[in-house]
Amino acid sequence: MSAKGTPVSRERAGARATELRAQIERYNHRYYVLDDPEVTDAEYDRLFRELQALEAQYPELLTPDSPTQRVSGSVQEGRIPVRHAVPMLSIRTETDTESSGAATFDTRVRRELALREGAPPVEYACELKFDGLAINLRYEGGELRQAATRGDGETGEDVTANIRTIKAVPARLRGVSAPVVEVRGELFMRRDDFEKLNEQQRALIASGAKHEKTFVNPRNAAAGIVRQLDPAMTAKRPLSFFAYGLGEVRGWTIPATHSATLDALDAMGLPVSQERAVAAGAHGLIAFHQSIGARRDTLAFDIDGVVYKVNALALQKRLGFVTREPRWAVAHKYPAQEQTTEVVAIDIQVGRTGRLTPVAKLKPVFVGGTTVSNATLHNEGETRRKDVRVGDTVIVRRAGDVIPEVVAVVLEKRPPQVGEPFDLAQQLDGRCPVCSSRIEREEDSADWRCTGGLFCPAQRKQTLLHFAQRRALDIEGLGDKLVDQLVDGEIVRTPADLYGLGEAGLLELERMGEKSARNLLAALAKSRDTTLARFLFALGIRHVGEATARALAEHFGDLDPLMAAGAEEIERVSDVGPIVAASIHRFFQEQHNREVIEQLRQRGVRWPRADKPAAPADAPYARKTFVLTGTLESMTREAAQEHVLALGGKVSGSVSKKTDFVVAGADAGSKLAKAEALGVRVLSEREFLALLDGAAP
DNA sequence: TAGCCTCGAGTTCT
DNA sequence: CTCGAGGCTA
To answer: Which of A85, A291, A366, A589 is at 20 to 30 A from A684, Cα to Cα?
Structure first.
C-alpha cells in the first residue's frame, strides 16, 4: 500500500496516525473482546492500510505499540528468558470428580481463618480454568512492554513480539497509566477457530505443502503458535485471551476483592470471561461447579475445570501460601475428556465374520470418568492415516459418547527407535492370529478377513455368543468365559451342540457348580421356544441383522420356503438387494449350515408357524417410523419397540426427515437435538404412553 | 448415478 | 455411538 494523493504535512500525518491508532484499537476491542464489530471488515482494512501508509512515509511516526506492528514484526533469533517480578504460582488442584471438592476447600478455608460454626459463609470468586497457556503481560505507563510465558513459575520465555500480533490483547490499557501493571491470563484457541484452522491446514497438506501439519487440540495449537519464532506466523493464527489476575503492580490501587479486580481489568479493555460469579460458601461453589459442568460442552472453548478464589484480598493475605501454592485458591477439575498415554501394543482381534480389527493396547489412563486401556483403531487404513505405532504417545478421547478413541499421535514424543508404520498383513505374517488360516482383503474394502470360517475358534466363539445374545435366542448365562471353555475344550462346535449339553458334562468345567449348571440348562430349555425372526437373526448370516431377519420372517412365514428360495426370490423382500440376497442364498446352500439347522430343530428349537401376524395396513401407526432416545422410566427400550411394532410402526436407530416421531426419555442426547433441528415431532414419555393407549398423538 | 437413508457390525466399561 | 456399505429413490 502506498500513500496516495497530495503529500500530507508531517505534522498532520502525526495527528492522523494517532487518530487512526486509537480508532483501530477501539475496533479491535469491539471485534475481539466484545465480539461486537462496529465497522465492516472492509472499512477496518481501509483504515489499517491508511495507517500503514503513513508509517511507511514517516518512519519516525512508527511506535512499537502501533496496531500495524501486530502483523509484521521481525523474526526472532531465539527465546529470551524472563524472570517474573512476582512468581507465577500454580493453583492446587482438587482431583476428586465429585462436588465434594468444593466442600473440602470451603472447610479448609474456614478452619484456617478460624471461623466459628455459626459465622457467615465465606465469599468466593468463581471462574473458569481455561485449557490454554498462562501468560504474563507487563504494562508500563499503560503500554504493553513485555509478554512472557509462565515457564517454571520463576522464569518464563519472552514472547512479546508474538503476543503483540494477538488482537485480543490490547497494546494499551484504557484509563490506566500506572508505572507497572502486570496482567495475568490465559491464551487459548476457540473450538471453532481450531476447527477452521485445521481445515485450512488439511487443505494446505492436500495441495502438497510439505511442512504443514494439523493440530491435535486447541491447547497444543495455542502453545505451538505462541512459541513460534516468527511473529508473522502467529499473526495469522486465531488466538484468544482472557485475563484473570495480576502480577506486579506499582502506582495503581488494587481493588479489595478479586471480583472487583476482574471488573477493573474489564474496564481497562482486557478481555475477561463473562462466565464468572461470586458465590457464598460451599453451596455456592457446588452450584457454580454444576452449572458450568452442565454447559461445558456448549462453551466456545475448552476448559478443564473451575477455579475458586477467596474473594476478599484481606482474607487472601491472612490465608497466605503453603510452599508455593496459595491457600486461598483451588482448581476443581472436571474429569478430563482427553488424556495422553502410551501405546503398549497393537493387537488384532477376530470378529464373528472374520473381520480383523486392530486394537490399541494402552497404558491405562483415567479419561472422562473411567479408566481406559483399549481403544479400537477400526481398520488398517484408519491406523495408517493416524500413523499410530507401538511406543507412540497418543491422545485418547472420551467425548460425549462412551467409546474411547485414539484422536492422534503426539509426534514430538515419538521415540527415535519407534517401529514401522502399521502393516496388518505383515504383522500377522498373512495368517489369522487365532487359527492361522490365510487372511485376505476384498477389493475396495477397508477390512482384512480371516478365511478360516467356522474352523477358526474365534469366529466359532463369536458365532455362539451371537446366537445366545438377548436379541437372538436369549440364552441367559452363556457369556464369553463359558463359551471360551466350551470351545477350547472342544465340547461345543456349533449352536446345535449347546442343546446336547448335559449336567454331567457341564460340571467338569471350571467355576461351574450344580446350581449354575442347572440354571444354564433351564435357560437353554427356555430358549428353544422362539420366533422365526429371532432364529434367523441368531444364525448370524452375513448382512442379516435384526431388521432384515424380521423382514424375511414376515415375507416367507416359515423357514423351509426361505431355505428353498432362489436368490431372485429372496431379493423380492424389501430392503434386500443382490448382495444380501446372495449372502442368504449361499448360507442355506452350505451343507454344514443345513445340518446345524436340522439338528437345532431335532433338539427342539421351534417357533410359531407364522410370525406375529403383521399389523393391518390401516393400523393407526402403520408404517410410521419411531426413534427412541434417552431412558424411559416405565419400560425398557425393547418393550417400547415391541409396542411400536404392535401398532404397525417401526423403530429405527437414527433420526432423519423421514422419521415421524422421536420418543425422548430422560437424558436424551444428540438424537433429540437432531429431531429438533429437523422439526421432527418429539414425544415425551407421557405422550408416548398416551399414544400407546390409543389417544391421538 | 448421486445422495440419502437404514442396517449391520464392532467396540468399552461398570 | 460410529462407520462403512447396501439399498432405494429422485
So the answer is: A291
